[in-house]
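Key result, reporting period 2: structure in, sequence out.
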């Protein structure tokens, strides 16, 4: 229930409105739902992208924007049938290569590693990794490990891809980025969160804020990654962002699990007031492609963006703590070692990447 009070509070701060499409309807007719960010997306031909969470919501709309500008995109998703249906509804530019499916199930870090290796076996470059997965709300029955894996598996996936991202960054004219969709919802998290050990990862925070905890770790991960890249003079930019309030299938599904009257009211409000996915994806698109980001790496490296591409700062002081980011990173590595997941050439056990 608290979540819906928060939703109501978020609506009052909400972004522009309306006509929320579902993922499968998104393909047609939304080219006009753009702004200056969309019209300024550079030509992306020859560049390779992975979008996690790409089969619906913000991730799907991100894929759509990228293929319209000629990007070669891998839709990383766990449900192949759903992803292939979503791909069928995309509208690529004429001549654009097909959108590829990459099987990625983030519920297990070993699967995340496997997906990264599968990608590496197919492609010789990766220009942008855009991460837009929605994690489930925790329940006492299902899922203490959801919060853990919502951070750990994306960590493994990203770090397993890092060698290829770094190779790509060596090419002349390259512009390599890692984009993490987070949320201003972290403002509702209590202060004093720690990531010292497994118990801290599993802290449910009364069960209400676990998804926000995952978004929170996305911001800390972004900061820690950028620090490591900068230390080694690797010209890759990591950015985190708040997409704004976006009417996606994920949001509507969350609302549907509530009692009918509440569900009905919130569905109407969200459909009427929240941004459609194609608009909601614009901050991700800005982070992934805007030339100004590459032109000013000192400003944008490790930054947190607000819609549609403004520099902001995470609305929770803990999420701005580099010390906490280091704690998260160190504990993540330790937990991975404990469960026997190695990331060759990546972070785990690799002193080169340690700051
Ligand atoms: N919508 C908003 O208003 C809003 C606001 C702030 C932040 N955000 C953030 O934006 C991101 C995207 O949210 P959204 O609203 O677009 O969500 P969405 O419509 O539910 O899409 C989420 C995607 O994540 C995928 N996913 C979930 N669990 C997965 C797993 N274990 N392995 C692989 N993929 C998995 C889903 O795949 P399946 O289809 O297979 O489930 C789906 O493609 C999230 O990080 C969310 O926190 C959203």
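The corresponding designed sequence is given below.
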């Amino acid at each position: 229930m608290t979540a819906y009070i928060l939703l109501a509070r978020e609506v009052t701060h909400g972004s522009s409105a309306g006509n929320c499409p579902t993922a499968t309807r998104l393909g047609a007719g939304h080219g006009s739902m753009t702004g200056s960010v969309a019209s300024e997306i550079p030509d992306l031909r020859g560049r390779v992208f992975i979008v996690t969470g790409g089969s619906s919501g913000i991730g799907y709309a991100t894929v759509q924007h990228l293929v319209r500008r000629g990007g070669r995109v891998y839709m990383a998703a766990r449900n192949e049938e759903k992803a292939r249906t979503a791909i069928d509804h995309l509208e690529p530019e004429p001549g654009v290569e097909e959108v590829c499916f990459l099987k990625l199930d983030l519920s297990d870090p070993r699967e995340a590693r496997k997906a990264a290796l599968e990608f590496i076996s197919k492609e010789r470059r990766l220009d942008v990794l855009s991460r837009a997965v929605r994690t489930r709300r925790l329940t006492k029955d299902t899922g203490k490990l959801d919060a853990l894996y919502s951070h750990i598996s994306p960590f493994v996936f990203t770090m397993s891809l890092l060698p290829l991202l770094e190779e790509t960054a060596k090419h002349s004219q390259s512009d390599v980025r890692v984009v993490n969709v987070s949320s201003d919802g972290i403002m509702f998290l209590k202060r004093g969160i720690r990531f010292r050990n497994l118990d801290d990862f599993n802290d449910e925070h009364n069960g209400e804020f676990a998804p926000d905890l995952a978004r929170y770790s996305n911001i800390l991960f972004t900061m820690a990654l950028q620090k490591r890249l900068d230390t080694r003079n690797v010209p890759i930019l990591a950015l985190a962002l708040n997409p704004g309030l976006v009417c996606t299938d994920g949001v509507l599904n969350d609302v549907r699990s509530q009692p009918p009257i509440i569900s009905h009211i919130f569905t109407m409000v969200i459909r009427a007031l929240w941004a459609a996915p194609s608009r909601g994806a614009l901050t991700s698109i800005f982070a992934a492609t805007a030339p100004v980001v590459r032109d000013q790496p000192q400003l944008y490296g490790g930054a947190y963006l607000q819609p549609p591409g403004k520099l902001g700062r995470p609305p929770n002081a803990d999420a701005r703590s580099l010390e906490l980011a280091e704690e998260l990173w160190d504990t993540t590595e330790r937990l991975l070692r404990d469960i026997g997941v190695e990331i060759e050439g990546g972070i785990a056990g690799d002193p080169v990447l340690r700051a």
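Residues 53, 55-59, 77-79, 82, 104-107, 132-134, 181, 183, 185, 211, 215, 243, 245-246, 248-251 surround NAP (CB under 6 Å). Residues 144-169 form the longest helix (26 residues). This case is discussed further under Risks and Mitigation.
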